[in-house]
Amino acid sequence: MKSNFDHTQEEELKSWLIEDPLIREDKAQRERIRYPYLKKQMGIDTLDTSKMLVWDIGGGPLGGVSSILKCRQSFVIDPLADEYKKYYPLWNGIAQKAEELKEKLTAPDLIIITNALDHFDNPIQFLKDLNEYTKYSVYIAMLHAENNAFTHPHEAHQHNVNPEMIRQYLTNFEVVWEMNYLRDGLTYGWRRQPAHSQLLRKVC
């Protein structure tokens, strides 16, 4: 019997593993167009990333926002990385669930998570792991459609994510940049869903 997570991953694959090359490239192009804007919305523009090791969690088949950063090195951590390689040249893609990283989370200087927590098997456990295992002064940049499982029902959207959830579990971090829908009109994706973004720094 398949778990909810396995089903979620299958649905996510359906949205990317498109056989028609023209339709697939159109989707990829629309995704790439957004990266510079997402980078700005998450406050990453305020950082000097040139010497950073960057991890893009759930970065998908195109490498996510990290693919446009000038940094020392970047990796995409995505459980579907091996599947994506069938159609997309995913460089430095590591096929692993974020909840399995644990002590490895001490390595990166910047962790990017773009509308991915709602796809996780256990997003709360991962937030707890970020709070416990990451090193002092690490930065985490996040942007999520707010309460996506409710506002955009889809088999791949299993969890609701909101700013209160982030604050509840990342207690060892300070917010150094923040945008939201009510104050800033922040939206995510072509559906213009209400969204929130945060750049956080670990302080203890």
Structure description:
This protein has helices at residues 4-14, 21-41, 81-84, 123-133, 148-151, 163-169, 181-184; strands at residues 53-57, 73-77, 93-94, 110-114, 139-145, 173-180, 187-188, 193-202. By secondary structure, the protein is α/β, with parallel strands linked by helices. Strands 1, 2, 3, 4, 5, 6, 7 and 8 form an 8-stranded mixed sheet that branches.
Short description:
The chain has 204 residues and is α/β, with parallel strands linked by helices. It is built from 7 helices and 8 strands; from the N terminus they run ααββαββαβααβαββ.
Which helices and strands, and how do they pair?
Elements: H1 4-14, H2 21-41, E1 53-57, E2 73-77, H3 81-84, E3 93-94, E4 110-114, H4 123-133, E5 139-145, H5 148-151, H6 163-169, E6 173-180, H7 181-184, E7 187-188, E8 193-202
Parallel strand pairs: 1-2, 1-4, 2-3, 4-5
Antiparallel strand pairs: 5-8, 6-8, 7-8
How many strands in all? 8
Which structural class best describes the helix and strand composition?
Answer: alpha/beta
Q: Termini distance?
A: 42 Å
**CATH level-4 homologous superfamily:** Vaccinia Virus protein VP39
- How much helix is in the residues? 25-40%
Q: What is the succession of H and E elements?
A: HHEEHEEHEHHEHEE
Q: Give the overall silhouette.
A: globular
Strand content: 15-25%
Main sheet specs: 8 strands, mixed
CATH architecture: 3-Layer(aba) Sandwich
- CATH class descriptor name: Alpha Beta
Q: Pick out the low-confidence regions.
A: none
**Could you say what the CATH topology is called?**
Rossmann fold
- Mean pLDDT across every amino acid position: 89
Total domain count = 1
Rg estimate, integer Å: 16 Å
Total helices: the number is 7
